[in-house]
């Protein structure tokens, strides 16, 4: 049996297996999986809610039982419906990191679904490319690019959610300032943000508000908020709150000054984005123009352009051109990326 047929057979088998496992993961909800994302990140809200709901002081045995239940909550965290994939993801830190990435992007995937989707796209595209492309390196390279598309989607949605959070943060802090000046506590002001603001601001501060109601310290709740939303503007606001808690002072005035700093940073970032628009457009042109030109020339004269992917010299030229285009785009990105 030729080597190409063996590769196709193995690829089809892996693709079918990944597709079946993906359908099983989508179709069934694993037993013991947490319904809220906060339980998946070790926040233990359900365990704390159970402890708070007990009217009388628990005995030593009751406390031990509840501690075991809280530990079981962490141990039964499910990353995939497929048992062996779930075991592997629990042994590694990859499962927790992927789950955090999914939560930050507001996508209801499990790490198992994400890995199976990427594997399925990689193998299926590799099998299809092996029927039309002779170079094994080009097959693997293009298949890897297609297999990374789920990751690109997650990162894009995560970036958009972060941008939306940053845009609404000054208004949320203004609401906190108004609530503090009206005589409310900081915890009540955080609950006001959770009720009055729009997602993702309301979702994140709702978790922070619930954590404090269940007995978590303010600094730990804010640290969890920073873990879920690692943004510099939010870090400035959290640092101001924690410093005021240690040193005292007028928190409303501190947050008011912090809001002014955040708005000024936001305005400066917009100004930098305007001044670097030409460079970013140049990077897009450098990356996209060769691909578009290749497609147009292929439609005009397919026989002549097919030399690029049917001969060794053409494949080398394609690889060199792609590498130079990527390096040029990266250099332009380094030039136009200015940290504020």
Describe the fold and architecture.
With 340 residues, this protein is mainly alpha-helical. It has three domains: 3-156, no CATH class; 159-274, Receptor-associated Protein (Up-down Bundle), CATH 1.20.81; 276-336, no CATH class. 80% of the residues lie in helices and 0% in strands. It has 18 helices and no strands. The protein has helices spanning 3-27, 37-40, 45-52, 60-75, 83-91, 94-104, 111-132, 136-147, 149-181, 186-196, 201-213, 218-228, 232-247, 251-275, 277-300, 302-305, 307-310, 312-336. The radius of gyration is 26 Å and the shape is elongated.
Write a concise synopsis of the structure shown:
By secondary structure, the protein is mostly helical. Helix content is 80%, strand content 0%.
Count of alpha/pi helices: 18
Q: What's the total count of β strands? A: 0
Major sheet summary line? none
Give the overall average pLDDT: 77
Which of globular, elongated, flat, extended, rod-shaped describes the shape?
A: elongated
Output the structural class. Answer: mainly alpha
Order of helices and strands: HHHHHHHHHHHHHHHHHH
Strand proportion: under 5%
Oligomer: single chain
Unreliable segments of 5+ consecutive residues: 24-60, 62-75
Total domain count: 3
Please state the CA-atom Rg, rounded to the nearest Å: 26 Å
Q: How helical, in percent, are the residues? A: over 70%
Q: Could you give the distance between the termini?
A: 60 Å
Which labels suit this protein?
single chain, 340 residues, mainly alpha, Receptor-associated Protein, 3 domains, 18 helices
